[in-house]
Amino acid sequence: FSKYYVTDVEAADNNVLLKLEGKDGKNYSTVIDKNCNILFEPVAGYANAGGGKVSIKTTDGYAVLDYSGNVLINPGTYKSIRAFNSGIAWAKNSSDQYVGIDEKGNVVIS
């Protein structure tokens, strides 16, 4: 972590979401578990976490990762994606309407 400064810490289920600032001036996010193990390398972007997923705003748009860092929804699929709760997150589509999506990006509430 010598390349980062912690700017914010949030509870994320049984883990902790770390919001970081890199020495390059960019925002990064990662998740650590209760034993302080990093679950994935910091990703450039500002994130929210919940429901076992991280919604992150990257330079390519919003994406969703699981707590292992695997991409569940590719960047740019939605204009914005909020944190997941009970398997659903609110996302803004290309028509600027909010819809409820599942972890695969499928619209489940329109």
Read across the widest sheet, the strand sequence of neighbours is 1-2-3-4
Low-confidence spans: none
* Count of beta strands: 12
Order of SSEs: EEEEEEEEEEEE
Helix content class? under 10%
* Apparent shape: globular
> Helical stretch count?
0
On the 0 to 100 scale, the average pLDDT is 94
Q: C-alpha Rg, in Å?
A: 14 Å
What portion of residues belong to β-strands? over 45%
Alpha carbon gap, first and last residue: 41 Å
Structural class: mainly beta
Could you describe the largest sheet, including whether it forms a barrel? Answer: 4 strands, antiparallel
How is this structure best described in words?
It is a single chain. The protein has 110 residues and is mainly β. Helices cover 0% and strands 53% of the residues. The chain has strands at 4-12, 15-22, 27-32, 43-44, 46-50, 53-58, 61-66, 71-73, 80-81, 89-92, 98-101, 107-109. A four-stranded antiparallel β-sheet has the order 1-2-3-4, with no helix packed on it. A four-stranded antiparallel β-sheet has the order 5-6-7-8, with no helix packed on it. It starts with a strand and ends with a strand. The model has no long low-confidence stretch (mean pLDDT 94).
